[in-house]
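Model it.
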Amino acid sequence: MNRNNLRDQLVAPDAEAGAGKLMCIPVRMQCSGSMKQIFDFFRAVEGLERIIRIEQVQFKNTAELTGAVSMHAVANVYYQAQSRDK
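Modeled.
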């Protein structure tokens, strides 16, 4: 979000859950900026090494006529738990 100069940032992870070795962290995200900035943010998320599934996305025009949009999203970040047996 910082790289794309997005404003009003919030990233709120929830409690991790999982079964066996596959773990999941639900994450709520929000920010505001131009559609191009938000699109570039999602492109960067797409390029991360973790598997991330976007569950929900909502866009809203801001009250001002600045061309800014607010974005609210819910995503799941998946990863493989490390084995404790060595």
